Structure formats: C-alpha cells, structure tokens
User: Fold these one by one.
Assistant:
Number 1:
Amino acid sequence: MLRKATLFSMIGISYVFLLRAIGTFYPHLFRENVLLVQLIELFLFIATSSIVLFFLFFLKDYVSEQQIKIKNVTILVLVASIAMLLVHLRGLIMVFNVKAFSFLSKLHSIEPVVPWISSILTATFFIVFYKNLNREQAILRKPIFLAAFASALMLFVRSLILFNYYVRVQGFRWFADLPQKIAFTLMPILTFNFAVMLYFFFIFYKHVGEIKLEGKP
C-alpha cells in the first residue's frame, strides 16, 4: 500500500501545484463558477488525503520499531497532515453549504497556523529522515536533501503569510489570497518545491518497489 500511496501523492501534489499556477495567472477564474469551485475543493480535499495516506503507510510499512526518531517525527507530521485535511474539509463543507460538522467552524481561528506548523514538521521530517539513512537507502540521499531544502523554503513562504495575517487586519491567509505581484514573485519557490517533491516521491516509489515491506499488498 505504501507504493500506491506514494503514487497517489505524486498525483495529489501535481493537482495542487497546477491549481496554484492557474490561480496565480488567472486569479478570477475560480471565483466565477460555483460548480467549478466545488469541484476544485473536492479534488483538493482528495489531494490532501493522499499526503495523509503516504505518511500513514510510511509509518506502518516502512519505519521499524527501532527507528525511534523517524517514527516520532512521522507521527507528528501525520498529525499535521490530518489537521490540514480537516482545514480542507472545512472549506469543502463551506462551498457545498453543508451544515453538518459544525465543530469544524472552530478551526477558523487557527486555520492560518495549521499550514505553518505543517511546514515546520515536514521540514523536520526530511531532516531527520536524511540523518538516519543507511546504505540501502543511498538512492534517497539526494532527493531527501533537496526535499528538506525545499521544505525550508516553503516554511519561509508560510511564515510570510502567517506574519501578514497577524500583523495586518484581514491579511491574506493562503497563497491564493496573496496579491498577484507577490504571488508571481514567490512562484519560483513553489515551482521548485513542487519539482523537488515530485522527484522525491518518484525516487521513493522506485525504492519501495525494490525492497520488501512487511505490510506490502
């Protein structure tokens, strides 16, 4: 299942990047059609769930009981990914005008913080993973190093957004809320992050296919 989850993640991050790119160049495109917005939010929720599944099966099938540091950081980043999923679930029920899950409305106040914390834990995950690689994982050394660097850059972007939100009244909370000039400026970072993450998942997908996992299908 880990290999399938990795493939699912590649598709998921590709969708998110494509969405960000289109939203940057055509910011009003997704605001004119309610049905389109609903479909976008639905697929965004599915894309986010792919990351949750990756870390879940990474923890279950790949990390051994002896790898305490990797296990602990994976649990933390899994929790952060689930929190991100709940944030997107909130967005999903809002665009579909669903009155259930009223408890999700409480996420509004902490919503800007969740992506920032997720970025911190993602960067930490790759750093810890890199430091605990063994000889059999040599193929992962370069992609994990690049992923750690890209995650640090994304942490910078998230910090910028979070700083703006708490300093300015009604400040932007998501990348999609950024003024177009700033979005264009940050687009190279997002493109680099996407390319690196896709590279990591691709190499990891190949790596998992070459080893034996206890929980593999």
Note: The chain is about 75% helix and 0% strand.
Number 2:
Amino acid sequence: MTTRRLRTTAARLLAAWLVVLALVGSSVALFPAVAEVARSTWADVLALTRPIGLLTMSDGYTQVAAIALVLAPLLPLAAVATGFRRRRALLRVAAVLGVVAVVVLTAATAGGAVPVRARLTSLTVAVAVGLALGALVSATLRPLLGAHPAGTPGPATRRLAVRSALGYGAFVALVAFTSRPVDSEVTPLLIRVLDRLHAIGFPAWMSYSAVEFTANIVFFVPVGLIVVLLVGLRRWWWGAVAGFVISGSVELGQLLFLPDRFASLDDLLANTTGALLGALVGVVMLGRLTARRDRP
C-alpha cells in the first residue's frame, strides 16, 4: 500500500471511528436505557468468562480497560493520516477529546450508585490510559512504517539484551516457582492502604485483584522489550509470543508442581499484555537506535 493510500485509509478510519464514538456516546448520555443495555451486555460477557478464570477482576476494572481500548486507536490513526507530522497539534486534540470523553461518560453514568468522585476518577483513568496506549502505538508505527522497518540491533545492543535476558529470566523463574506467592508478606499492608484510599473516595474497583493484575502486566514488560532488542523490528511480535509461551509454561508448572500457587488465565492474559507492551516499547527504542546509527 502506498503512503498516500495508507494515509487516506487511516483518515477514513479515523473519521468513521469518531462518528461511531460520537453516536454511541450521545446515545448513552441521552438515553439511560442504552447505558443499562450496555452494562447488562458487559455483565453477560463477564458471566461467560469468569467461570473459567478469565476477567475475574471487578466490573469497574474491566469497564475502565474496555473504555481505554476503545479510545486507544484515535491517536495512531491520526498520526498515520497526518504522516506523523503536527505532533503537538495531535496532542492538543487528544487532550480535548479526553476531556470531552470524561464529561460525556460521566454524564452517561450519572444516577447510579457510584459516587461522582469515584466515577470521575475511573473515567479519567480510563481516558488517560487509552490516550497513553494510543501514543505508544503511534510511536511504534513510525519506525515500522518508516525508513527502517527491517532494522536490526547492533552488537552492543544485542549483548546488552542477552545479559538482560539471562538476568531477568532468572528473576522471573525465582518469582514464579517459589513455593509461596511473593506478595504474601505485603498483602495485609496493601489491603490496608487500599481500604484507606477507598475511604477518601477512590473507586472500589481499585482493589487487590486490580493491583495484582496490573502488577502482572508490568512484570512482563521487560520480556517483550528484551526480545525485540534481540530479534529486531521485523519480528517485533515475537515479544508478545514469547510472553505468552513463558507465562503459559509458568502457569502450567504452578498447576502441576506447586499446590500453594494458583494458575489462572488472568495471569496469562496480564503477562501476555505486558510482553506486548514491552515489545512496542522495544520497537520505539530500537527504531530510534537504528535511525541514529544509520544517520550519515
């Protein structure tokens, strides 16, 4: 696909995405029945996944994640449509869209049992995460679609990645295959901190399970990053695959050999997500290193 055609396609997709978001947002805000149908549909989806140990976090956490994923494509599509120019203008537009999204979604969910402060906090987090994901994907697309799509790491980068792989691999094995969960000592303290945060108005979905799921995402970010620094830009997706394979092996090992540990699909999902995010970060880093190395 030519550059002009790619930009045109991205512009059309962006326009369509904005129209859909505007229609859905206005419908949910103006017609409470639509919001109720959306909530009940999401609850039905969770009712199907939770018996198998998937998406067992609170409803609020999954809703925040869903909103973030819906908003994430906006910046990448805008970046491709503008040829990765006008970065500051895109950021300003993203900020405006974020504020509008928070206001609209807050109005759409008004009247429920959730306090206004908690609802506003949840939506602000969702929009911020969605725009941050979009910014990361935008930064990733530039080297993949630019002049160095087949960029390979230099010898120094590869040596650093190998050493990091050995060190972090040992750390992952230590954390994953200890007989007791590594967070067992800090769990009571964490629960007390969360209780105090809830007492001052933080959303109830910011619970121990949410912290654990998020920590599992962060835990595997270095996996994807290291893999990309080893294999190069062309095979960036190997980072996510590596995260899935390693996490699956860990969960299987815990299931078979560690009765005090709990294997779950949520851990597999979180770890794979973290590895994917790490791979995207690796693409950005390696793209910049490659461009700097090849600069005349």
Note: The radius of gyration is 21 Å.
